Every structure is written in structure tokens, then in C-alpha cells.
């Protein structure tokens, strides 16, 4: 038995996309994700995306991390999802309503001469209440709160973009201890569902530079929800404007936290790499 898939990426954050409307999937999707995302013994990816029917929206997206866990949402992943379902004819309109564990997300394809040049996503409102992130303790919003890690104190600003984020501002992001502090904070008792961890260098009020430790995936080249959380944290701490460019390892995301409706908008690329068949 073979599984047809498409490999895609958003700024190097790469995904295996499977159309479950046509493909028969094994019952254990957590184990499938662990197998196919393995970079030595599988296809290799930061996540497995499943395209499913929905009774609430145009389609439903499920995403699984390389460790088999299922996050609520993925910003880079939903851009890839949107491009895939449009180019394969599963949807006809450039604006799509996608059911996720974080609610209904609305990506809009940016088209030029019939081709997709990018995707702008209405990510909805950031959740700033501590219990909605979720975090233990008391007091909201969580802005520059001390987080004790291995005897040191880091000041985190925490946001949910449908999934949890803890944002640290640093002087030099290239030297940030992403691979040591990142996993320690991911699994910190403050975060009962674990958390993504962003390290942000403020270049100026309109530009942020970011590295990220993703929950269930480790350090990745990009994180769309993380870039949104970083932009919100920049505003909450007075470090940046509501519209910023977030520089990631493989390129940029444009993020805007609208004062009109409180929604966060993310604009960036989605690229198809190859397609193939994986033996089950």
C-alpha cells in the first residue's frame, strides 16, 4: 500500500501534505507522522498536514509534529494547505475557510497572472488571557514575566495564536541559546500544554529578527504563528509597531496586528517542492 503525498515549505518550514479525501490513511496518525517526518528513515519534514472534509468550513486541516503530537494550528502550514487545495482544485475561490483546532482560519491566496505568489492569512485575535494561553499562575496579560530556567531568569511575554507562545527579546538572536533554553521553556511547569519559544532581536520598530524552538519539532527555520506572537509581544512591550517585517532564516513574513478589528494578519510564501509515493 502506497500513500501519495506532496512536499511543501513556507520559508523552509517544511511539510508533508496528504489529501485524505482521496488517500486511505492508517488509523494511527500520530505514528504515521513520526515515521514520515523522520529525516533519516522517512520523507523528512517539520510536520504532516492532512486535508479533510469539514461540516463547518470549506475544508479541515489537521497537522502533526515530528514527535506525533497534534498542535492546534500552524501558520506556515496553513499557507501551504491553502496553496495545495487551490492548485489541486479542491477549492475554486482564492479566499478559503479552514477548520482547525484553533477555530476557523481564513487564508487568502495572492494571485498574479493566474499563479499563486503568496498567501495572506487572517489569524484571528491573539489570546492574551493567561488561562487561554494556557499558563499557570495569575495575572493577564503576561508581559515581561520572569521565567526561571536552569537557575537563570528570562523575561517572557506570552500569547496564544490558537497555540501557545513564549516570546523572549534578546540583544543578539544569532547567539541566543535556542537549543538549550528553548526545550527547557517548552516543557516548563508554567505551560501545562507545553509551548513554542521565540527569541527576538528588535532591529527597529518595523523589523524583528527571529529564531524559534517549536513545540514537538525543535528548532525550525520558520514559524508563522510564532512570528505573529512576536509581533503582538513587540506591541505589548512597546518595542515595535503594529505592522512589522519578521526576518527568519530563509526569508520574511509580513505581520500586522490591526487596531480596527484586533485581528493579526500574516503574509508570506508557500512553495511546492516535490510529490511522491510513500510505502505504508
From TrEMBL:
Residues reported in the UniProt entry to bind substrate: 13, 65, 75-76, 163, 196, 214-215, 224-225
Annotated site location: Could be important to modulate the pK values of the two catalytic cysteine residues: 165, 214
EC supergroup of this enzyme: isomerase
Active site positions, chain numbering: 74, 223
Cell compartments where the protein resides: Cytoplasm
PROSITE patterns, sorted: DAP_EPIMERASE
GO MF, one example: diaminopimelate epimerase activity
Entry-linked Pfam families: DAP_epimerase (PF01678)
EC code(s) of this entry: 5.1.1.7
Chief location category: cytoplasm
Pathway: Amino-acid biosynthesis; L-lysine biosynthesis via DAP pathway; DL-2,6-diaminopimelate from LL-2,6-diaminopimelate: step 1/1
Xref: InterPro entries: DAP_epimerase_AS (IPR018510), DAP_epimerase_DapF (IPR001653)
Signal sequence coordinates: none
Catalysis: reaction(s): (2S,6S)-2,6-diaminopimelate = meso-2,6-diaminopimelate
Amino-acid biosynthesis as UniProt keyword: yes
Keywords: Amino-acid biosynthesis, Cytoplasm, Isomerase, Lysine biosynthesis
UniProt GO cellular component terms: cytosol
A biological process term (GO) from this entry: lysine biosynthetic process via diaminopimelate
Quaternary state and interactors: Homodimer.
Protein's job: Catalyzes the stereoinversion of LL-2,6-diaminopimelate (L,L-DAP) to meso-diaminopimelate (meso-DAP), a precursor of L-lysine and an essential component of the bacterial peptidoglycan.
Membership in a protein family: Belongs to the diaminopimelate epimerase family.
NCBIfam families cross-referenced by the UniProt entry: DapF
Protein name: Diaminopimelate epimerase
Organism: Neomoorella humiferrea
